[in-house]
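Honest question from a wet-lab person: if I give you the sequences of every part of a complex, can you actually get the arrangement of the whole thing, not just the pieces? Trying it with mine:
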Amino acid sequence: MRQSALFTKTRREAPADEVAKNAQLLVRAGYIHKEMAGVYSYLPLGLRTLNKIVQIIREEMNAIGGQELIMTALQDKDLWSRTDRWDDDKVDNWFKTSFKSGGETGLAITHEEPLTRIMTEHISSYRDLPVYAYQFQNKFRNELRAKSGIMRGKEFLMKDLYSFSKDDAEHKSFYDKARAAYLKIFERAGVGDQTYVTFASGGIFSEFSEEFQTVSEAGEDTIYVDEEKRIAINKEVCTDEALAKLGLEKEKLVEKKAIEAGNTFNLGTRFSEPLGLLYTDETGARKPVVMGSYGIGPTRLMGIIVEVLADEKGLVWPESIAPFAIHLVSLGKSGDDISRIADALYDDLVKAGVEVLYDDRDVRAGEKFAESDLLGIPKRIVVGKEAVETEIFEVVNRATGKVSKTPRAELFPSEGGPASGRV
RNA sequence: CGGGGCGUAGUAUACCGGUAGUACGCUUGCUUUGGGAGCAAUUAGACCGAGUUCGAUUCUCGGCGCCCCGACCA
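Yes, you can. This is the full assembly:
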């Protein structure tokens, strides 16, 4: 895309009402717009980035047998009353509203109840199990205090997958697959090294749940990490008893600040029993379905990646989730030789299937470079006088700052091998 | 929800009981052209309501909104 056609602008100064690094940089770079406290819109660059994250998650969920659907935001009060999760005493962060025709509704905080009910129409025999279903959907949580930019909002995108299994053994087998898939997602999103499976409170469902915690100073949680085993335990549940149960030694643990990037729960029959999700087994006996739920917030993950990878110049995206693979920066003026070379390179890169943001504006070089750094696209190709004379282009790696001189032909994805710059 | 702070141009900020200044941006002209350049001109502003006062953007109260600490965080 030509940058001259991009409607968003960058800002030199951070907004006065944001303290979190992720929100400051994303607003400055024009990726997001703050609508209200804890409520953000995703502008073209932000949406492209978010969609990359969503697609990685989708691929990994599909790979373990997940089937994608989408449920409603508006929720049925009666349904939630049946699992005792409607009253504000029980769940205090509902956004509730009413129908003009009478009766209450609420905006979904999560989707165990509606999906369990849906499954009662589709699961009746052991032959129908297991089933794995997931969605990407905006969740609404009426937080008393939104904070940390896009990492803890009142409206945010969530990937939630639910598993429906015959028994604990079948559930456990899938649960382990889901854990592995989650680790792969964080790996692909560029924060694998910093992300640990972390034992945490299971809330009202189970003794423990597993959180996926990404180490960062911006984190709200404190975890104790065992670097060797690459697992951690949340401070909230870190007792001698828990450590013994998990086989962790106190001396080997290192305290870190971390952000919860994902969470998986063993739900057992907490929802299937009250909502009547039963199946008939081989012997003709009626049994409740064993459930699990698995959440990752793509918008939060986007914030985490900013927190972990950004530097003093601005955003730094891994290739896998950057809004564009290449930032092509022309230092020419429209109509001159430099511009013609840059235009031709842009056209050829697009034809080759490379996602390019082309800074074709008549703006000074310094401003273009500063903006390019802020936007955080992994590779910058600079077209200056040298390129006109030699067909050799300057390629700058945003993360490392390394500059390399590259002949035109090598700017294109190679046949067969790993495509450089291709996404 | 407890405590604290703050609302001034598109953005970031300053001063003041006598209707507001700066920087960036925007628009225009000239210069400049590999790290947010320079000069000049232009454009544009006191969250809402009530009160005190001759006069309120400034003081008081209420509302709304935003931020921070804590609590909370299926």
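Two things worth pointing out. Chain A has a mean pLDDT of 94. Chain A has two domains: 3-309, 326-411.
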